[in-house]
Amino acid sequence: MGEFELISRYFANCGAKxxxxxxGVGDDGAVLQVRDGxxxxxxxxxxxxxxxxxxxDEPRALGHKLVxxxxxxxxxxxAEPAWLSLALTLPAVDEVWLSAFAAGLSxxxxxxxxxxxxxxxxxxxxxxxMVAKGTVPRGKALTRSGAKVGxxxxxxxxxxxxxxxxxxxxxxxxxxxKHQSHILQRFHYPSARVALGQALRxxxxxxxxxxxxxxxxxxHILKRSNVGASIDVSRLPLSQALKDSCDTGTAxxxxxxxxxxxxxxxxxxxxxxxxxxxxxxxxxxxxxxxxRITGVAGKLELKQxxxxxxxxxxxxxxxx
Length: 320
Hints:
Blueprint (H helix, E strand, L loop, with lengths): L2 H8 L10 E3 L7 E2 L5 E11 L10 H18 L3 E11 L4 H17 L3 E9 L3 E11 L14 E5 L4 H9 L7 H12 L5 H6 L6 E4 L4 H12 L2 E5 L7 H6 L2 H10 L6 E5 L1 H11 L6 E8 L5 E5 L2 E2 L12
Helix pairs in contact: 2-3, 4-5
EC number: 2.7.4.16
Catalytic activity: thiamine phosphate + ATP = thiamine diphosphate + ADP
Pfam families: AIRS (PF00586), AIRS_C (PF02769)
């Protein structure tokens, strides 16, 4: 099977059919229509075999995850997902693998109302790259640079489950049958908090998604906003599955540095805090306050209740 037959068979009609994609797969480029009064948000993520996934991972899960991790970046900026481009590098054409991968990609893109509008295919070591594009009302994009001293720090959902899922797949940690399904679902099939991200446009002072672990990721907000932070690790939201599967120290390490949670980390000024529960309650996603922004630029203080919490681990860092 040649490159263009592969594209036509598996990716020509992938995801939702959008009226604002005037021209999609099949030409040298896509033609997209951005509404008046909106800004375009663009993000790119790459998943490489051996680094981000195992060679024998279920291809349907890879298709899902590739879309979800990109859409999660759009969610963190308060954007509405719209268009996707895929750069697919494969060592050979495996039609069974491609069919399952394309199915996972298409059903997840459809769920988030995205259309695949272009990309590239080539031969080589397996690598999956996606460019996701979305729109946000002009001037309303959430960034990492708006946090102010006194702001409250929040996270959505629970932390550490995906990292435990990775350890389970690696054979490094045991999980009871009661919790295996939940833990593996969180690792292989993450969810992007799109609707909640859009709801935060007029509430949050800064935001980002959690991909490399809370301990590492919050440093980006501290650097871009020129502030510090104090986090109480006893407030970190941990699932019952994680608490039942690990001792407290391991659970906190996974929550702080495990990565691949794809939850939202955001800050809210005190004046807007009263509106938070009311505006976010319809989304059914738990939101937890874990600390506050402080004035010492770049300083991250961890505590456990009233005591200092000594912590040396770091989240995932490429080229470290």
